[in-house]
Write a structure and sequence with these properties.
Elements: H1 2-24, H2 53-62, H3 75-84, H4 90-120, H5 122-133, H6 147-162, H7 166-177, H8 183-192, H9 201-229, E1 242-244, H10 248-260, H11 270-286, H12 293-308, E2 309-311, H13 320-325, H14 328-341, H15 345-367
Length: 373
């Protein structure tokens, strides 16, 4: 089932991204003022390289040479360089990145199934896999982005801890801390996570040591950036059009735009992003007593981090749907709620159809290099 979901997702995301890519050839090049990138020269690899991809490839080729590189953690680029070698060109690194992302996504789906099955049963686990595979932002899991790698490492970090495989959980957590800026979130989330069985004192100590590992990964990265570039990941966010704000303001501003600007309803970026925020917050409240406190902290912190560093344009909630895609407890919440709260199979079918349609649209926009996920 996992392999089928992965394969179906890969085929359909490729089809709709390529449709967008073909359409893009008849349009002016994307404006780099918004962070877009024309991509690598290979026609077939090009649609999977946009926005942040240039920085991952650039770091793999030349290291941290620009101040804005401080926003990007090193593990993904390091993998590209280790496989491609020091002299690899952009096309070669893009191909490696695409392969790494897709393989990592397959592993992430399998671990998501195993972890969710242990917690909520096989039916919810299957639903979680299909939701993850066809999430609106799933195109990022096939591109030169860190989403798939972070999913694999973060789910593996929790799953190994649940199975008391501390020797495996610790390095996975450290590597996750080298992949994204979510090290502190993973640390606290694991400490707050409810194990299925009470832990002995030695096991509690091992879990604490494992929980520290993602935080250590982040600290190592920030020390390196400070030593080599004199900056940190947070200090360069303004370069990307993000500024600190109260986390509810971006949602309120986007809702205002949806209600006062008729054309915004046709914006296939703003509406799903702001709705994903509202739905996630609602589900967190509904399942606050049944869901693991650590998992709720994970989802809430991802939302707060994304909304606090808000995009100054529209949508102000930019990237939130991509961050939720990379936060596996959010997917578990969606799967659990859809299996318990929908009144009938017909309602499930309608919701699934709407989700698939949104997946198609967002994949097409990704191919157009117009999906600012």
């Amino acid at each position: 089932m996992v392999a089928l979901a992965w394969l179906a997702s890969r085929v359909l995301v490729w089809v709709f991204v390529m449709v967008g890519h073909i359409r893009l050839q008849t349009m002016p090049p994307p404006s780099e003022d918004m962070g877009a990138w024309v991509g690598v020269s290979s026609y077939w690899l090009n649609p999977w390289t946009t926005f942040d991809s240039r920085h991952f490839i650039g770091i793999a080729q030349h290291g941290y040479t620009q101040p804005l590189h401080a926003a990007f953690f090193p593990l993904y680029s390091l993998i590209l360089r280790m496989i491609g070698g020091a002299g690899a060109d952009a096309n070669t690194l893009a191909l490696i990145g695409i392969v790494v992302s897709n393989i990592a996504f397959l592993g992430a789906l399998w671990l998501l199934f195993c972890l969710t099955r242990d917690e909520w049963g096989e039916a919810v686990a299957k639903r979680a896999v299909w939701i993850e595979a066809f999430f609106p932002a799933a195109a990022f899991s096939a591109a030169v982005y860190t989403e798939s790698l972070f999913l694999l490492l973060s789910i593996g970090f929790f799953y190994a801890s649940r199975r008391k495989q501390w020797w495996l959980s610790a390095p996975l957590g450290f590597l996750a801390g080298l992949t994204r800026n979510s090290g502190p979130i993973l640390c606290v989330a694991l400490l707050l996570d409810r194990p299925k069985e009470p832990l002995s004192f030695a096991e509690k100590r091992s879990r604490v040591l494992c929980a520290i590992c993602p935080l250590l990964g982040l600290i190592v990265v920030q020390l390196y950036l400070h030593q080599t570039m004199g900056s940190s990941s947070l200090s360069v966010q303004k370069i990307f059009g993000r500024e600190l704000t109260f986390p509810l303001f971006p949602i309120l501003l986007d809702l205002q735009a949806l209600l006062t600007k008729p054309d915004t309803w046709l914006d296939f970026v703003t509406f799903p992003v702001v709705m994903s925020c509202i739905i996630s917050l609602t589900l967190m409240w509904m399942y606050r007593r049944r869901f693991s406190p650590g998992k709720l902290f994970f989802v809430g912190s991802i939302l707060i981090m994304s909304l606090t560093l808000a995009w100054q344009g529209t949508p102000h909630t930019l990237s939130t749907i991509r961050y939720l895609f990379g936060a596996f407890p959010a997917i578990q919440l969606f799967a659990l709620a859809s299996s318990e709260k929908l009144p009938s199979k017909r309602a499930t079918m309608y919701l699934a159809t709407a989700g698939i349609a949104l997946f198609f649209v967002q994949s097409y926009l990704f191919g157009l290099k117009d999906f600012l996920g």
